[in-house]
Amino acid sequence: MKQSILVAAMFFTTASAFAAPAPVSDASGGSNEDRIAKLERIIKAKQQVEFDMQRRMDSLQNEVLDLRGITEQQNYQMNQMLQRQRQLYEEIANLTAKSSTPAAAAETTQTDPAAVAAASSTLGETASYEAAVNLVLKDRKYDDAIPAFRDFITKYPDSSYAANANYWLGQLLYNKGDYSAAKQAFSTVVSKFSDSNKRGDSLVKLGMIAEKENDTAGARALYNKVLSEYADSASARLAQQQLSALKG
């Protein structure tokens, strides 16, 4: 009798074990909390990758700025050498003419005041621009370079260096995060110096500022404008990169 009761008890215990509901498990291999934590890790990793890419992009843009600045400085120095050579040749020619004309040596040389003022203005203009550029390329004093370029632009708004000065100013302000002031400087290059080789670069920068301001449509329009007007240029390649990475 006891044996029968024992067997019955074992039977009911086994049946209860089979009838008990299995613990709820996520078909994807974890609880909801685990899935949320996993998604958060994925999102954070993606954000870190995007942050690193943006940081590398900013670093590359700064390197491009430095390289373009060095090229610009070299071109400027070459132009200065050529200008000084021409002045030297003119002085030699004048001395030769005076020595071959005895009567001319006795005459009092009359100097045109307007010509003297123009020469002085040119030297001041060149020296001011060179000093501002050197603050960036040689001294790395970026904060000091901003007022230097502003002063140059105020004094020489129609200078042959004015477009470059505005571009330098815009780039320095962009690097500081002053996008409103940078936008004004780049817009000046675009609207006032249509023949400048900095116009395409300025359009790209305006597109990047539009991105910073969450104006995706405006940024896309500016990049496409660069591709249309400056095809096969360094500016167009940079615009295409920015356009490819543009979302929305």
From TrEMBL:
<dbReference type="Pfam" id="PF13432">
    <property type="entry name" value="TPR_16"/>
</dbReference>
<dbReference type="InterPro" id="IPR019734">
    <property type="entry name" value="TPR_rpt"/>
</dbReference>
<dbReference type="InterPro" id="IPR014162">
    <property type="entry name" value="CpoB_C"/>
</dbReference>
<keyword id="KW-0732">Signal</keyword>
<dbReference type="Pfam" id="PF13174">
    <property type="entry name" value="TPR_6"/>
</dbReference>
<feature type="signal peptide">
    <location>
        <begin position="1"/>
        <end position="19"/>
    </location>
</feature>
<dbReference type="InterPro" id="IPR032519">
    <property type="entry name" value="YbgF_tri"/>
</dbReference>
<dbReference type="InterPro" id="IPR011990">
    <property type="entry name" value="TPR-like_helical_dom_sf"/>
</dbReference>
<comment type="similarity">
    <text>Belongs to the CpoB family.</text>
</comment>
<comment type="function">
    <text>Mediates coordination of peptidoglycan synthesis and outer membrane constriction during cell division.</text>
</comment>
<dbReference type="Pfam" id="PF16331">
    <property type="entry name" value="TolA_bind_tri"/>
</dbReference>
<protein>
    <recommendedName>
        <fullName>Cell division coordinator CpoB</fullName>
    </recommendedName>
</protein>
<dbReference type="InterPro" id="IPR034706">
    <property type="entry name" value="CpoB"/>
</dbReference>
<keyword id="KW-0574">Periplasm</keyword>
<feature type="domain" description="YbgF trimerisation">
    <location>
        <begin position="32"/>
        <end position="105"/>
    </location>
</feature>
<keyword id="KW-0131">Cell cycle</keyword>
<keyword id="KW-0132">Cell division</keyword>
